[in-house]
Amino acid sequence: MSDVLIRGGHPWSFGEPVDILIRAGVIDRIEPGLEAPDAEVIDVPGRLVLPGLIDAHCHLDKTLYGGDWVPHSAGDSLADRVANERARRGELGLPNVDNITALLERMIAFGTTHVRSHVDVDPVIGLGGVEAVGAAARKLAGRVTVEMVAFPQFGLLTNPGTAEYLEEALKNGVQTIGGIDPAGVDRDPVRHLDILFDLAEQYGAGIDLHLHDPGALGAWELELIADRTRDHGLEGRVTVSHAYALGQIDEAYQDRLVDRLAAAGVSVATAAVYSFPIPPIKKLDAAGVNVACGHDGIRDLWGPYGSGDMLERAMHLAYRSTFRRDEDIELALRAATYGGARALNLDAYGLAPGAVADLVVVEARTPAEAVVTHPVRDLVMKGGRVVVRQGKLV
Length: 394
Prior knowledge:
single chain, alpha/beta
C-alpha cells in the first residue's frame, strides 16, 4: 500500500489546517507543511476531515434497500410490526444478499466505515441472516467492516430454541449477542439476562440488548443490566440500545441510574427514531456514559425510512435533543463516530498518529455545519485506501 498525503485539510478538533501523512494504512503524522516525496498527494484545502462514521445499530438482514418500493403494511403497534415481519419475510425473500449489499454500498458512499448490525436468529430463521450479512460484507471487504449481533427478535424465552441459536452463532464466529425487552417480551428478566450474560462470559462475547420497556420497568431492567455487567467483568463490553426508560423517569432517579451505568461501563445506543423517547445525551456524556448512534431499520418491514447517512442520523439525534449550539450538535456527531468506536471496542480509531486511516472529507467549516447540512462526501478512506470520491464508490 502506497503512502498518502492528505494536504491542507481541517481535521475535527484541530485549530488550523494541517497535512495528514498515511503510511501502510495508518496515520503517521498530522502536522502543517509535511513533505513526503514518494506519497500520493490529495489536496483538500480547507475541507473538514472527520474520522470514519460508525453506524452502531442497524438491521441489515431486514432491509429492502435496492429493490422495488414496498408499501408499509403493518399497523401502528409493536406487535403489529413483529407479526407483519414474520408474515412477509418469506414472501419478499428476506434476508436478501443483494439488498444488503446495495445498502452497504450506500452507507460507504456516505462515509460509514464500520457497521454493527443486529441479525435475527431463531429456530425458523436459523443462521440464514448471519450467512446473508456475512456474504454481503465479504463482497465489500476493505471498504467497510461489519460486526454482527445475534439477535432474538421474536423473544428469547418465549420462542423456545432461540438460546441455542444464539450459542450456535457464537460458535460460528459472531462476537456479540443481543436480547430484547427481558420483561416486556419474555416476562422473565432475571432468566433472560442470566442466559445472555452466561453465554457472553463463556464465549468472551459482547452484549447489545434492545430495551424498549418504558418508565420504571425499563429503568429497573437497566439496574439489573448494570449489576450483571459488573458482576461478570464485562465493563466496556455491554451496550443497551434504545433505553427509552432513561428519557421517561424523574430527574433524581435518572441521575442515580446514569451514575450506575457509568460505573458499570455500559454504553447506550440510540437511533432517535420517530417520537420514541431518547436518552439524555448531555447528562450521559457529562457522567462518562458512552453514547453511540445508529439508524435502526432502514427501508424494511418495520418502516420505509432511512438513508444510510450517519451525518443525517446525527442531525436527527441533535434535533430530537433540541441541540442548537455547535458544541451540543457535536455531541451527536461524537455518538456517530467516537461513541460508536467505543461501543464496538475498536482499537486505533480517530484522528491521531497511530490510528487506522478511516477518514471522511466534506465541504464544511465546522463539524456542526457538517451535521446540519450533511454534504456530499468529497473523499472517504478505509484503512488508507480511497473508496469514495465525490459521493461515488471507486
